Each structure stands twice: as C-alpha cells, then as structure tokens.
Amino acid sequence: MRTEAGRILVLAAIVWLAACSSRESALVKSSREPAAAVPKRQPQVSPLRRKVVSLLEKKNYRQALELLHGKNREGLEKEYVLALSGLLEAGDDAFASGDYVAAGRSYKLVLNAYPAESVLRDRISHDPKRIRALLDTCVNRMMEQGLEEYRRGNLESAIVKWKALLAIKPGHKEAKKALDTATVQLQALQDMKGK
Questions:
Q1: Which of 131, 117, 45 is nearest to 77 (CA)?
Q2: Domain of residue 191, residue span
Q3: pTM as predicted
Q4: SS3 for 103-148, per residue?
Q5: pLDDT per residue over 6-35, tens digit each?
Q6: Backbone dihedral region of 169: left (phi > 0), alpha (psi from -120 to 50 degrees) or beta?
Q7: Using an 8 Å Cβ cutoff, are 140 and 173 in contact?
Q8: Based on the structure, what is the number of domains in the chain?
Q9: Listed residues 126, 151, 170: the one ending a domain
C-alpha cells in the first residue's frame, strides 16, 4: 500500500508541475505576443508640444519660440532651447552670408526670449553679451548699406534698409534722421516727376 500511495503522490506532483508549467508557458507566450495584442499606454502629448515640435521639424523657429515665450514652459524646456538654438544658427548663417536684416531679426528675437534660468542659459551656444555684439554689428552694417544706396541715388532702397534697421533697433537716431531726409527727398523727386 505504501508503494501505491507513493505512486499516487508522485503522479499528483507530476500533474501539479505540469499545470504550473503550462501556466508559466501561457504567461511567457503572452508576453511574446505582438504589441498590437497588448495595448500599451502612450504618454499624453499636449497640443502645444505637438504644435511646437511640428514647427521645429519645419525649422520654423520663430513661430515655435513665439508659442513658448511668455507661457509656462514647464515640460517644454528642451523645445524652448531647440527653438532658441535654431534661431541663433539661422542668425549666424544669415550673418555669414551678409543678410544683416535676417540676422538682426533672429538675434533680436533670441535676446528678447533669452531664458532667465541658468540651467537653460548653459545649454545655449551664445551668451547675451555676444548676441548683443552681433546685433550691433548687424545694425551698423545695415546703416552702412543704407548710406551706400543713398549715395548711389537709390533712395527707395536706402529707405527700405533704414526702415528694417529701425524695426530692429527703434531708437537708432542716425537711421531715423537719414530715413526722414531720404523720404523728404524721394517725395520731392516724385512731385517733380508728377508736374
């Protein structure tokens, strides 16, 4: 009877192990199933982040920065730094190619949106002092270009240059005076042609 009881115990143990084994096998198998079978939770992406990321992908840094500047940027610090860095790069490229209007606009936007948080400041390639120096160089070159156009008699072109300069640096007295003079002269020429 002992041997029979021993056999029953061994059979019961085998059945129990087989049952456990098939449960483990089922668990392992379900973990190997394709992702479609087991829905994963996707992190929630805010509409603002979606819009900003889309703008950054299109290299529309100005608009991305406008969406982020002045608003609560918490959680969007990476995108904010990317927008600033993209604008700086665009400014540097424009500066290198001699497009001082585009460079000046980029530098002005970056300065206006430069972060106060030191953690973010450390992630930006140019410090404010360098950006101001680049902006001042752009303004000076725009003034010179306007004067060159004026000397050539291209009053309309000079006026365009000085208006662009004043859009970047409204308090520039020389540009304001030069713009006023050129505008009066252009009007006088147009009046003479009209007679």
A1: 117
A2: 142-195
A3: 0.70
A4: HHHHHHHHHHHCCCCHHHHCCCCCCHHHHHHHHHHHHHHHHHHHHH
A5: 666 655 556 665 665 555 544 444 445 555
A6: beta
A7: no
A8: 2
A9: 126
